[in-house]
Structure formats: structure tokens, C-alpha cells
DNA sequence: GAGTTTGAAACT
DNA sequence: CAGTTTCAAACTC
């Protein structure tokens, strides 16, 4: 038997590509040191695949990434898609969720498992640089590469997983071996990925979809391969995985359930998330028209994912790396535990997630969903995200993490009145993710909002506008301003902010951006460090409104005030009269909740903020300025109001880098990220240094100096950086 | 649900 | 850059 198998394998290898053979060899090595071997094997492959990959991935990644990163509008055609909200999310979610649960047991589960396995490997090797895994495939893709760097282990893993997903499906078909098969699949996938069959996998730009619906082409292709490959991979994986497998090399096929048992569990659990991913793609495949939409979703999702990746990283740092990885991907199932623990999570958290911008929103929404819904709901949102991001990565998982973190932050929200705001913002973002939410709340836009807000946002509200004259093509329109397409719930008239008018939307956005590059940037910037600055120092909260408000009658105590709405205190930048902002007065007085005050006090340190960023509790930062974080970025004043623009100018200086910075080194990336519009996440990341969002982190506990603290966090930061990297990749810097 | 208030966005 | 107008959200009744 073994001989036959070996022969078959060899044949397959030959037939397929030389690479695989190479890989196989290294795989055998894995036994000794799984990671290195694995990497080594991969490295050779890279050159060959690089071409394919670059194409497929680059295409894919670009499509998804650019739009997301830069900003919804950014990527022209693609971007437009990003705007779509609910529509995407809804479909994806259900499928995903259902699929997920099902997959766990079924062959799909295997697919999922595959990614997991990869992840596991990474986890296992966690001590080892995860990058290795990622390196192989990722390096090939320029875009991916950058991300990989940033994401490091996580992203790569996810990448692999994603890729694998497609192929895996095929492999799965072959294997079919129930649980045990999952392992095989995984290994197979890994091989395939490494092998660079991607081309086959991805036939189209829409490939992502294809990816998602992996099974089709690929699966059948390689049956033989799968059979052959799996073993090698499996073995490699198994070996990598520390656990029990020691032997598996060839046996993988045989391993079947055995080894799998334990492993499978892990994988499966993790896979649940993955499944989501897979599911999405599938759907996408189903509807190409939808594919675009999905892309949009994905884009956003990507963001989330990015964020999620960060969290994952963070979590990894704080937690066990291995676990983390799984979490990132899965966040939902197995990991949930972790996630949950991390974030008390809470429904409120959802609401709180303020992310305004698409990115932010998406992130926030994802987080929320993950938390609240956990498997199902979260899955859907994530799925969407993930699939697109294949390139993007597992962001989903991470997203969840972020969510969790954010959720932690929620404690904040509770304290802070602005919770509503947050909810709204979140809703925006959620638009995509939280289709459910949308559906839930809706009736009439305003009412919905109110409800949502009033409700505490537990249900992430989606933004809904009521524009009558602006055609939803001006910043007056919340949807447009948030980088989201108007949705059914919107009561707008003559709305052009729809996918149908994508070109118009993009053109308009460009115009607005040309006028004010920061027009779509988060309005709330984390100023944590800025606090130190004299100017901002006065303000209590770490986060501040980018431009500051100009309230004269509302006393900054109503939502008319953007600062108040954003849950941040007024700052020097504000020109408000009679400021009574409970989050922090321009004068420096902060009436805010004790927490807020604390934050403020801490804010000066910035370290706190850092803490916020930190994964563990981190996100609390968001809470501070829950709502608008999404957009909040430390950017210079868009409009040129120099003085105001940033609270945290000092910090911002670093942040400001061009939007495109991401390309910069990892370290830089973090900063840059903040610069970019990637709002919350970025902020968080970048913020780490500067803004700490609302340091309010419930506990001013962490005071570690922003940078210095990095030590552990540094790794985390890197992760965050990864997020920004995407933007860099984006072919079109709209901006 | 209609009307008013408010302040950002847009325009001049 | 300042002032004015437009706009839509937030708010009130």
C-alpha cells in the first residue's frame, strides 16, 4: 500500500508541478523540525508560485484590500462595492452560520480544518516565527507580503487558510474522510497552497469567490494529488503540530481520525470560523453580481480582519500564541472562550463599536457580532470579510478579537452616555456586518437610529440617512460620510449613494477628498499622547474630535456636538461656547464619568492609551470615543484648520505620514496605520503610541508607557501595522 | 409625524 | 479666511 501510495504521490507531484515534489521532501523533514522544514519546502516553491500567486492574489487582494483600506470610496470600482452593507452581510451570515455548524461535522469542516491546521501549525510554531508559514505563499504576493509582514503569523496563517479553503474544498471532496479527513485536507491544502495551484484555484478576479467555493475546480483536479499530497502535508502538519503525530508522514492518510481526534477538535472548532469564510465565498460564487457586493463586504471585512488580526496578535501575546491563532480565525467557536473572556462582551459592546468609517464600522460591527452572536452572527460578518480578504486574511478572527476587546471597552460605554453614538457608528460599520441589526431595527431611519441609540445600541444600528437634497453624495449624508451605501432603511430621496451609481459616488468622493483629504477620515482622533500636549492636555479624554466642534447653543451636551456625539471631550480645537461636554470640556474641565476623568488624567501619560491598545483589555480605548472611532484617526486637520485638527499633533506627527505609508517598516506601519484612515484599528495600533483612544480603559491599570510598553505589545503593534499594510498594497491610492 | 433647532458642510 | 447658505440630523411638541 505504501508503495503504491508513494508512487501515486510521486506521479501526482510530477504531473502537477515540480514544486510539490520539493515540498514533499521538505515535508518529510518536518518531522524533525516541522516549521523549518515546512518553510524550507515552501521557499523553493515560492518562486514558481510567485507568479501565479501574484496574479491571483494580487488581483484578489487588490480588489478587496484597496477599497477597504483606503476607504470605501478609494478603490474605484471595487470600492464602490465596499459600500454595500447589509445586503452582503445578510446573505453571507446565514449561509456561513449554517454552514459553519454543519461543516464542523462534514467535509466542509475539513476544509475549515485545513486552515486551522495551518493555524495550528503556526500556533505550534508560535514560538517560531509564524511568518514562516505565511512567508511561503505570501511572499509571492506582493500585496500579501506586505500584509504578511505586518500581520506576521496571523495574517499569513489566515492567508493560507483562506487559500487553502478553496483548494481544501477540493481536497476535501477527495478525502471525504470525515473527521480524520479534515486533517488530511489541511495538509493537502497546505501543500496545494504551497504548490501554488492557486492559479487553478482562482480562475478569476472574482477568484476570491472561487476561493471560497473552492471545491469546484480544484477539488477534482487533484484528487490524486490530494491523496498524495495530503499525507505529506498531514505529516508535516502533524509534525509541526507537536502533538501526537509524530509519525504521520505518510500515514496521514491513515491517521484519519486518530491523530485527528485531538487535532480535529482544535481544527474544527477553529474551523467554525473558517467555515464562515468558506461559506461566504461560496455564496459569492453563487452570485457573481453579489460577488462584487461581497467584495465590498469583504473589503470592510478585511479591515475587520485586520483588526481582528491585531487582536489576535495581541491576544497571542497575552494569551498563548497557539490559542490565539485559532482564535483569530475562529474567534467564534473554540476561541470564543478566550474571546469571551477577554471581552466581557456584551451586547452593549456592539452598540459601542462606533466605527464610523467603513473600516471602523466593519470592524466594530464584526466585533460586536462576534461577541454577541458568536458563532453564527459573527461568522457571517466574518465570513464575508474573510473570504474577500483571503488575501485580507483571517481578519475575521481578529476582528472578533477586536470586537471582544472593544466589547471590553464597552464598560466604558456604559459609563459614558455616548454609548448611543457608538451604536450608531457601529451601525454604520455594521451596515455590512450587522445586517441583522439593520433588519432588526429598521422601520424608519430616524426612528431606527433613535431606537438603536436609545436602546444602547445593543443592536448595532446601521446608518440610515434621510437626505432629500444632497442625493446622498455629500457629507451631509451620514451614509455617504461613513463610506457606506445607502440601504433600504434609508429614507433618502434621489439617492445616488448606491452601488448602481458607483461611479458617481466614487467621483464625488474624490472631489470631496480633493477638497479635504480627511473628509472621510475619522472625526475623532485618539489623542492620548496628545493629551500631554498643552493643547489637548486640557481635554480629558484621550480621544478628541479631529476638528473640534463649534457649538454655541447646545453646550456640547447634545448630539449636535460632534465631540459629544463621538463620546469625546472637547479640546482646544473646539470653538464651542459654553462648553459643558461631559466627556471633557474644552477648558480642561472634565465632567465626565470618573472613568473618563481617569482616562484623561491618564491620558496625559498616553501610556494608558497604550494599554488600551493592548489587547488584553485594550480596547477599552474605543470605548472612550466609541462612536466615531471608526473614523477617528490622528490626522492633521483636513480642512486646514491647523490648530484644531489634532489634539495629538505631536503623536500625530508620526501618524501623519502619508496615507500610503503602510509600506513602511512594520514599526512604521503602526504609526502609519493610524495615519491612514483605518480608523479604530489603526488608531488602536498607531494609537498605541499616541492616542490611546480612550485610555479610559476601564482600568487606568495599564500605564505602561506607550512605546516603551511595547515590549510585549510591540509584537502586537506589528500586527496592527499589518492592517495598514493593506492600504499600501492597494493599487490605487485614491487619495 | 410635523415642526423647530442646531451645527456641520458647502458655498461665496 | 470669514461670512453666508444649505443641509440633514437631533430634538421638541
Strand content: under 5%
Q: Which overall shape is indicated by the principal axes computed on the Cα atoms? A: globular
Strand order of the largest sheet: 1-2
Distance between the termini: 60 Å
As a whole number of angstroms, the C-alpha radius of gyration is 23 Å
Q: Structural class per helix/strand content?
A: mainly alpha
Describe this structure in words.
The protein is mainly alpha-helical. Among the domains are: 2-291, no CATH class; 524-729, no CATH class. It has 40 helices and two strands. A two-stranded antiparallel sheet has the order 1-2. It starts with a helix and ends in a 6-residue tail after the last helix. Mean pLDDT is 44; it is low at 1-31, 44-461, 529-541 and 591-735. The structure holds a DNA duplex (12 and 13 nucleotides).
Give a nutshell description of this structure.
With 735 residues, this protein is an all-alpha fold. 66% of the residues lie in helices and 1% in strands. The chain is built from 40 helices and two strands.
Layout of helices and strands:
Elements: H1 2-16, H2 18-30, H3 34-70, H4 77-83, H5 86-105, H6 107-124, H7 131-140, H8 142-151, H9 154-175, H10 179-195, H11 198-201, H12 207-212, H13 215-221, H14 223-240, H15 252-255, H16 257-286, H17 288-318, H18 321-330, H19 333-342, H20 347-352, H21 358-373, H22 375-389, H23 396-408, H24 410-415, H25 419-433, H26 435-441, H27 445-455, H28 478-481, H29 502-515, E1 524-526, H30 528-532, H31 534-538, E2 543-545, H32 562-565, H33 594-605, H34 607-613, H35 621-624, H36 642-645, H37 649-656, H38 666-675, H39 679-687, H40 710-729
Antiparallel strand pairs: 1-2
Helix pairs in contact: 1-2, 1-14, 2-3, 2-10, 2-14, 3-4, 3-7, 3-14, 3-17, 3-40, 4-17, 4-29, 5-6, 5-16, 5-17, 5-22, 5-25, 5-26, 6-9, 6-10, 6-16, 6-18, 7-8, 7-9, 8-9, 8-40, 9-10, 9-13, 9-14, 10-14, 10-16, 16-17, 16-18, 16-22, 17-18, 17-21, 17-22, 17-23, 17-39, 17-40, ...
The structure holds a DNA duplex (12 and 13 nucleotides).
